[in-house]
């Protein structure tokens, strides 16, 4: 950045001068360019995924999705238990696995995203989520 031109008379003003040497007008402060904030999604795709994760795996959603997952898993389990045919049994098992997946994913992800919780609670959630996911995914549907 070199000299700038006086806004009044057009003479060059040295960088360190506060006033125009020709006409004495105060040097116009170079206004810092207003930073045009690009939408964050355009700036960095991985960042927006992270933001999405953090806005999705919230405590509020966790308290909705985990009971929902338990409910789905229980329904699947009941269908499984009282199934009369292999098709219904499989359907029940898949529903049960689906419910367990929801619980597992939310335990795991909320264990990572929830900053306020006690670290042991979060660690427990992550471990529980991993165990549940591993167990669920190891069941042949
Ligand atoms: Zn001037």
Characterization of this structure:
The structure is a single chain. The chain has five helices and two strands, in the order E-E-H-H-H-H-H. It is an all-alpha fold and 141 residues long. It has a domain at 55-138. A two-stranded antiparallel ribbon has the order 1-2. The protein is rod-shaped and about 100 Å long. The structure holds zinc ion. Residues 6, 8-9, 11, 20, 22-23, 25 line the site of zinc ion (ZN).
For the structure shown, list the relevant keywords.
2 strands; two-stranded antiparallel sheet; 5 helices; 141 residues; mainly alpha; binds zinc ion
The unreliable regions are none
Bound small molecules, deduplicated: zinc ion
What's the pLDDT, averaged over the residues? 86
Coarse shape: rod-shaped
> What is the makeup of the main sheet?
2 strands, antiparallel
Topology, number of strands: 2
Beginning-to-end CA distance, first to last residue: 67 Å
Strand composition percent? under 5%
Brief summary of the model shown:
The protein contains five helices and two strands, in the order ββααααα. The protein is an all-alpha fold and 141 residues long.
